[in-house]
Amino acid sequence: MTATDTETLTRATPEGDDTLLDVKNIEVIYNSVILVLKGVSLSVKKGGITALLGGNGAGKTTTLKAVSRLLKSERGEVTKGQILYRGDRIEGMAPADMVKRGVIQVMEGRHCFEHLTIEENLMTGAYTRGDGRRKVEDDLDLVYTYFPRLKERRKSQAGYTSGGEQQMCAIGRALMSRPETVLLDEPSMGLAPQLVEEIFGIVKDLNEKEGVSFLLAEQNTNVALRFAHQGYILESGRVVMDGKAADLRENPDVKEFYLGMSDEGRKSFRDTRSYRRRKRWLS
């Protein structure tokens, strides 16, 4: 990002407002027919970790792709509402524009370049940068500091590394672009519990020590709410509950339906008063 771009973004953010991303009542339709998001609103604060929670098909990945502008590759379109980043509307921008603004998405399933080595994968994240090789090498060292396992496997072909190492590689590759905000999609998918804790611990360190803001989509509500500051719960393309992560962890409905603390099994928010109150408020 150039100095001019930085100045422009700074002016676009109201003084004293720490909101980086503001999603306002968006609807998303695929193939001009399938309505997936139905009035989703959320915000991401600068320097925060915001969790987007819900089961498979709730609309989490679609929300991330609406922000990163990757919807068009899947014939998706934001048809209503607004998405603002640092006060600027971004619905009409290209994915490359979002990268230049410091917004990077780490896709579900990791998507490493299997035929490249770990280090070559990491270096692809710095492709758009123009601040000199020395700074890129410094950032590579920083990535290896947070992910020492990647340094050990840096010459290994990515396709022959473990799922956990590939997830670390995908996050490290995003960091090589010097992001301000990372959209992290299902980081725990397919990983052993110990590796999930390790990945989320690194996310926490990156947030606290490097100032990277995160919007993460996650089905593992228990882990996500322990590391996030703010949470939004989606069902069927709607936000049915939101609040501080600490408050959501103690909410009886969240405990019963998402944290497995009930003998009655998982239910839908459609069966609860809190959902009906929230649904009327959205409408």
CATH class of one domain: Alpha Beta
What assembly state would you assign to the polypeptide chains in this entry? single chain
Low-confidence stretches: 1-16, 273-283
Architecture per CATH nomenclature, i.e. the level-2 architecture of one domain: 3-Layer(aba) Sandwich
Mean pLDDT: 86
- Helix percent reads 25-40%
* Strand-pairing-aware structural class: alpha/beta
At the fourth level of CATH, the homologous superfamily of one domain is P-loop containing nucleotide triphosphate hydrolases
* N to C succession of SSEs: HEEEHEEHEHHHHEHEHEEHHH
CATH topology of one domain: Rossmann fold
Count of discrete alpha- or pi-helical segments spanning 4 or more residues: 12
- Beta-strand percentage? 15-25%
End-to-end C-alpha gap: 40 Å
Biggest sheet strand order reads 6-7-8-3-9-10
Number of strands: 10
> Which descriptor suits the 3D outline?
globular
Most strands sheet: 6 strands, mixed
In short:
The chain has 283 residues and is of the alpha/beta class. The protein has twelve helices and ten strands.
